[in-house]
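re: ur question from yesterday

yeah so i grabbed the chain u mentioned. its 128 aa long if i counted rite. heres the sequnce exactly as i have it in my notes:
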Amino acid sequence: MNDKKMIILGLVIFLITVTYPFWYTLLAGAKVSRPVLEKPAGETRCIEEKAFMTANHMQLLNVWRDAVVRNDIAEYTSTAYGAKYEMSLTKTCLKCHNKREEFCNRCHGYVNVNPACWNCHNEQKGIN
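ran it thru and got these structure tokens back, copy pasting raw so excuse formatting
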């Protein structure tokens, strides 16, 4: 029984079939550039540094929610700048980032996440 050639051929076909989605995506996938976001009018910085906000804004919002709802703490002190802010998505964050389509949706679409903010929070008038 000398089926060595058939076994090798079967393994090659199996490996090609199993790895095809990875190779296809690698070779044919479109390059997507990181979204360019405009700073809100009249603002020079966010409540924390850009790198921190990019990586941790959802965790920060969760900390704020817990502090306000569970501990009755409503003021946040920036670790980067020492400035004080009200812990509020609508009064602090959306005051500057009030164009949802141009800001929130661009980044969330880029990283393919669907945030749950709008499940509880009503969108303010004028926010798209």
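noticed a couple things. The chain has a mean pLDDT of 86. also The CA atoms of residues 98 and 116 lie 17 Å apart.
anyway ttyl
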